[in-house]
Amino acid sequence: MQRAIRYFVAAAGVVLTAAPVFAQVYPERVDGRTTRVHEVYRRRDRGGDRAQAVDKFTKTVHIGADGTLDVSNIAGDIIVSKGSGSEAKIDVVRTARGRDDADAKEQLSLTRVDITEGNGRAEVRERYPERNGNNGGRHNWSVTSDFTITAPPGTHLILKSVSGNLKIAGITGDVAAETVSGDVEISAAGRVTTAKSISGNVVVSDTKFDGALEAGSISGDVKLQRVTARRVSIGSVSGNVQLDDVQSERVDAHTTSGNANFSGTLARSGRYELKSFSGEVRLTLSGDVGFELEASSFSGDVRSDLPITTHGTSDDHRRRRSLSGTYGDGSAVLNISTFSGSVVISKR
Predict the structure, then answer these.
(1) Rg (Cα) of the chain, in Å, rounded?
(2) Helical H runs in 112-210?
(3) What is the dihedral of CA 12, 14, 17, 21, to 10 degrees?
(4) Each residue of 86-102: pLDDT tens digit?
(5) φ, ψ for residue 15 (rounded to 5)?
(6) Residue 177 φ/ψ region, left for φ over 0, alpha for ψ in the -120 to 50 degree band, beta for the rest
(7) What pLDDT was estimated at residue 47?
(8) b or e along 94-119 (b: 16 or more beta carbons within 10 Å of the residue's beta carbon)?
(9) How far apart are the first and last CA of the chain?
């Protein structure tokens, strides 16, 4: 039981790191209203109300080849792709839905998107009226703002949203992307420092850099594909964590309810920790790097297709629940555990 509690506390750490997204996105508006914003976004997906009003505009900002673009949204998607030069082009589509045309137009007129720039930095903010301000007597809003952006490849990118998907492709500057309700998808990027969702899937692919990558979700899967980073930390509370063709000196992957899978080549002197509370943990290894192994399951099997030289006594091989030993030169360290599930180690 004590071991089960320790696993749960470790996995729950994702909650503590992801929770600040609520305050960071738009602190003066998120308080107590996240559920309603999420409902606005879902209504948009299924057609929403009968009447709608739409406002479209484009803004070009000068940020330089390696400037900073900071985008915070309340409801709507943010899509960023690689452009060229020293300017970022921002296409904005604002859509309001109401009981009738007048209601939709009123909502659109009372909300806005602010874009400011200066000293190599641009900020984009979706704005709803303050509670006690000029809000036309309204308490509920059904307005979404979708941003489609092309930016210089070296842009330092900061994206935050309450309810919306984030998609980034080809940006090689620092990338931090967080959403409360929505998916995060990052591909062909550079230094991905943060990729998080509270309710949604997170995928990072085709990314290589010398740094630390942190990705997580509370309710969703987290997947890394063809990623190289010095350190990788990923986790989910309710979802699978998967690392495919990942190369890293240090990997920390954990989930409370889901499977944890790793495939790739170990680094000599690398350290790899994979944990699940309720799910299977599977490693599919390539290359010839040896490792020291500590593997255990409270209510499942521990199996290895690789010849492990065991240390001391071990469980009955017919139902082995722990395995401690060395494979090859023992240069890497593997710490693998699950409470309810099996541990499987195989060769690619």
Answers:
(1) 23
(2) none
(3) -110
(4) 999 999 999 999 999 99
(5) -60, -45
(6) beta
(7) 53
(8) bbbbbeeeebbbbbbebbebebebee
(9) 35
